[in-house]
């Protein structure tokens, strides 16, 4: 069963809040904030987040995606992960036929 970017973003948001002690009512924290520039996630946090993505979603994030500006937000991470998931990829091909 494929998961859309919104569902992925929700899981990532929950993981980040729990793992990095981010309060749910933190006024600066949202799905479009740059997690690294705002100081929510550091270099060790990136490794933990990548391990979580691999474990939960079953995908490996390539370096070019990891280093992209897109990957700096929850919504961006979710888009990258959704694009890497096999179910999502097969659904895209079905639509194009």
Automatic annotation (TrEMBL):
<protein>
    <recommendedName>
        <fullName>Carrier domain-containing protein</fullName>
    </recommendedName>
</protein>
<feature type="domain" description="Carrier">
    <location>
        <begin position="6"/>
        <end position="85"/>
    </location>
</feature>
<dbReference type="InterPro" id="IPR036736">
    <property type="entry name" value="ACP-like_sf"/>
</dbReference>
<dbReference type="InterPro" id="IPR009081">
    <property type="entry name" value="PP-bd_ACP"/>
</dbReference>
<dbReference type="Pfam" id="PF00550">
    <property type="entry name" value="PP-binding"/>
</dbReference>
């Amino acid at each position: 069963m494929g998961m859309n970017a919104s569902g992925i973003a929700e899981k990532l948001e929950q993981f980040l809040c729990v793992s990095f002690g981010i309060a749910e009512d933190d006024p600066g924290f949202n799905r479009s904030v740059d997690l690294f520039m705002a100081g929510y996630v550091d270099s060790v946090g990136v490794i933990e987040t990548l391990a979580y993505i691999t474990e939960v979603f079953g995908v490996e994030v390539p370096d070019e995606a990891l280093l992209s500006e897109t990957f700096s937000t929850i919504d961006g991470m979710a888009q990258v992960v959704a694009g890497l998931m096999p179910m999502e990829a097969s659904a895209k091909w079905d639509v194009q036929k």
